[in-house]
Each structure stands twice: as C-alpha cells, then as structure tokens.
Write a structure and sequence with these properties.
Helices cover about 40% and strands about 10% of the residues. The chain is of the alpha/beta class. The chain binds iron/sulfur cluster (SF4) (2 copies).
Length: about 350
C-alpha cells in the first residue's frame, strides 16, 4: 500500500484518501457499509466537514469502533471564535470521538493568524493545547491566498483543487508545499465530476508522491474502482496519457468546476449545474439532461439580473452571467435539434 506523509505532521496515510462530501448523497445504510469496506481495505484518512450535513455522523456511526486506527480531518467555515468552538463541539459529537487528527479552516476569505482581529486561529491553538485537535490545516481554491497561507508557516496542511486540468500556477503550489514541508491534500481530482475516466485521474495522481488525493465516494462501485487501481498498482501509460490529453483539449480555458461556492443565487438559479450544462451534454449522454425538470432549471437562468452577488464568491473569477447565457443558448440548440452534442 502506497502512503503519503503529510508535511511535517506525523500523519502517514494510505494514498487512497476518502473524501466524505458525497456521503451525504448516499442512503445511510449504504454509506455506513462502504465506509466499513473502505476501512477493511486499509483506507485510513477520512476528510469531512461541518458543512457536509450528515457526513460526519455517518463516519461516526461506521468507524467510531476503530477510531484509533484511522485519521479524521474535519473543517469549520465559521469566521468567529464562538462559531468555531460550536462547530468543533458538534463535529466531535457527530464523529463520536474526543479528538480530530486534523482540523481545517474551510475556505476562509483571508489567512487567519494568531492575535488577528478575527480570533479564529487562537481558537484552533487553544483546541490544540486542550488535545481536541492534533494538527491545523486550511483549504482554499484561490491561488494567491494559498501561496500566502503556505508561506505563513501557520498551517500543517493545505487542501487545494488539483487535477490534470490544473494550470501551471496550481502545480507550483505543490512544489511550494514540498519546500515548506506542508502536507498537500488534493480536492476536486475529478474536477467536479467532469472527468469521466477515474483510472486516468488515479494514475495521474500517482505521479505526485507528496500529494494526497481525497476521492469523493458516493457509491460502493466507485470505492471498488479505486481499490482495484491500488491493488493493480495502476500507473500512467500511453493509453491513459491519451485520455488525459483529449480531456485537456476539450476542457481547456475557463469553465465552471461545480464547487457551488457561488450559491445561493437570490433568484434561485442553480448556477453550478446550469453553468456547466454545455459540458454535461457533451461529455455524457444527452438524453437524461433533456427532461422537463432540467428544461425548467435552464429556463430559470433567464432570471439572472446580473446582480453580481455570485461573482465575488467564485474562486475562479468566472463571468457567471455570461456563462449562464452561453450555456442556455447551447442547451436550446440541443433541445431544438439544431446541434447534436454527445458522441460515443
Ligand atoms: S448575477 Fe445572476 S446568477 Fe449571479 S447571483 Fe445575481 S442573479 Fe444570480
Ligand atoms: S461558477 Fe464558480 S463558484 Fe460557482 S460553481 Fe462554478 S466554479 Fe464554483
């Protein structure tokens, strides 16, 4: 089993990290069952968050009896000391544990520091002193902020989006983490569901020994795929490189990653689905996206008043109203039969 040491922490974990965000979309009994299966197959790092509704509870139900054998990472989005304490207390209760191996600031808009005006880093330090958390990490989608946070020396891990669609500036984050001995946890390895070939994505990650990808697992079959890749020691080969090159060609430039940070839209637009519709209907069979429900969802994009509320929240600085207009137009062309998008 291949392991990753997370920076200067004492966490040495199976390179198959478990991303627990999608657990909330599974039936509870299924989630518990495949969490146990993950543990039985030596997966020992579980990344969850207070913001992932019942994800923590499910981990607690499935794995509290093997707590000492696993590493649990959670996160708080709170930007106030009381909120951080409350989140931490809830996370520990949900996870049925009295400590977290790693506690992360969940995408804060600034770099938290000791004695700053926000006071949230001080709560982390106090929690560490009390033995409630063992290590302090942070997550962000923003390149410049990531650089600042890594250079600050205040965080033991950095969780950042990384896939083979990443840009040069994102690859630099990995090197900076290596240089500063900060653990690198890769989120969005499948680029928000747009990458279809998990084998190619897995093999790509194998090229980066210091990177810990956390695979968002929602079904047992997805877990099985990754376990098989690990068992078969899958590495990049000519065929998988071709898949990667084709994807890079198709998905270059500015596109929505589906992170949903821009939500909610005051006009009820499902931005993270609608701003990616052109991609869905090209990369996957089109028919399931043409139902009355999807048509209604796309019609709602016409309600965009360009209020700009979503713009400041998008870590990729996308022009969301423009993306919505383009996706709507493309979708209408497919609906009316003017163009045919998906090709096997
Ligand atoms: S700009 Fe449009 S999509 Fe964005 S929040 Fe405002 S109404 Fe919603
Ligand atoms: S528009 Fe930006 S913030 Fe919204 S889902 Fe897409 S990438 Fe994320």
């Amino acid at each position: 089993m291949e392991s990753v040491k997370l920076g200067k922490t004492d966490l040495i974990v199976n390179k198959l990290g478990f991303g627990a965000l999608p657990l909330q979309r599974a039936e509870e009994k299924d989630a518990i069952s495949f969490l146990k299966k993950a543990y039985n197959n030596k997966i020992n790092f579980y990344d969850t968050a207070r913001a992932y509704s019942n994800s923590e509870e499910r981990i607690g139900k499935a794995l509290s009896n093997v707590r000492e054998d696993i590493y649990i990472a959670s996160k708080t989005k709170s930007l106030e000391p009381e909120g951080v304490w409350k989140d931490l207390e809830t996370s520990l209760k949900n996870l049925k544990t009295d400590y977290l191996d790693l506690y992360q600031f969940h995408n804060p808009p600034f770099c938290p520091k000791p004695n700053d005006e926000h006071g949230i880093y001080d709560v982390f330090l106090e929690a560490k002193e009390e033995g409630l958390i063992n290590h302090i990490g942070i997550t962000t989608h923003k390149n410049a902020l990531a650089i600042k946070e890594i250079k600050s020396g205040l965080f033991e891990t950095m969780q950042y989006p990384f896939s083979y669609l990443s840009e040069e500036k994102d690859f630099k984050i990995i090197n900076l983490c290596k240089e500063k001995n900060v653990g690198f946890i890769a989120m969005k390895a499948m680029s928000g569901g747009l990458l279809k070939e998990s084998k190619a994505v897995y093999a790509f990650m194998e090229e980066y020994p210091t990177v810990l990808p956390i695979w968002g697992i929602q079904k047992e079959s997805e877990l099985d795929e990754f376990l098989t890749y690990q068992k078969n020691n899958v590495k990049l080969n000519k065929e998988l490189k071709e898949v990667i090159n084709e994807d890079k060609e198709e998905l270059s430039g500015e596109f929505c990653r589906g992170c949903a940070y821009c939500q909610p839209c005051p006009n009820g637009i499902n931005i993270n689905m609608c701003a990616r519709m052109s991609l869905w209907i090209r990369r996957f069979p089109t028919e399931p996206y043409l139902t009355p429900e999807y048509q209604e969802m796309m019609e709602k994009t016409l309600d965009c008043e360009e209020c700009g509320e979503c713009l400041s929240k998008c870590p990729y600085e996308l022009n969301i109203p423009k993306l919505l207009r383009e996706n709507y137009e493309d979708y209408q062309n497919v609906l009316s039969g003017k163009i045919n998008t998906y090709k096997e």
